[in-house]
Specification:
alpha+beta; 7 helices; 6 strands; about 35% helix; about 10% strand; elongated
């Protein structure tokens, strides 16, 4: 069945609105009802459908949920694993008498980790640079990030928690400040 072109080929036929050409339907599909124009074509990369095609560097993959390029063998750390790291911080700080935790933290920040992240096999990753967060990024994440996280008490803590749980990338407030996401690295592929 062929669908007649509602705009016709002659000059007297109705014309589509300015800037919206009529695109005839693919074979086998009905066109728009009489009096209606066909939908304009969607520009490439406009945001419909799957993630736009990007060149994926060797050793990386495109995470379909977040659209982030992540290293092979890693995955975005789950909400439960991240909450576990938060709770693990307390007994680790107690066991190391606080000062040991601080020193341990300063040592592992260069690997994109905190003591709790190290114990649970996770690392902070910078999607912007496709690298593990370095010492200074971790310092930004942990010192001002945590201070800001606690400045307004329960309000900022709840905001951070909601951002963390509801976001596709599971980023808490201190992750937004430093531009990091936390990856689970079970095989230590990101170890330097």
């Amino acid at each position: 069945m062929t669908v007649p072109d509602p705009y016709g080929a002659d000059q007297g036929a109705a014309q589509p609105p300015p800037g919206q050409g009529y695109y005839p339907p693919p074979p086998g599909q009905a066109g728009p009802p009489p009096g209606f124009t066909g939908a304009p074509a969607v520009p490439a990369g406009y945001g419909y459908g799957p993630n736009p095609a990007v060149a994926v560097p060797p050793g990386m993959y495109l995470d379909q949920v977040t659209g982030l390029l992540l290293p092979n063998g890693t995955e975005l750390a789950s909400v439960g694993r991240r909450i576990g790291a938060g709770f693990l911080t307390i007994p680790l700080a107690i066991a190391t008498l606080g000062i040991g935790y601080v020193i341990w933290g300063l040592v592992v920040w260069g690997n994109g980790q905190t003591p709790a992240l190290q114990v649970l096999g996770m690392r902070a990753w910078r999607p912007e640079t496709n690298r593990v967060a370095g010492f200074w990024i971790m310092a930004l994440r942990e010192i001002p990030g945590r201070i800001i996280n606690h400045v307004f008490g329960i309000f900022t803590l709840l905001t951070s928690f909601v951002l963390f749980v509801a976001g596709r990338e599971h980023k808490a407030l201190h992750d937004w400040i430093a531009g990091t996401v936390v990856l689970h690295d079970p095989d230590r592929r990101l170890a330097s």
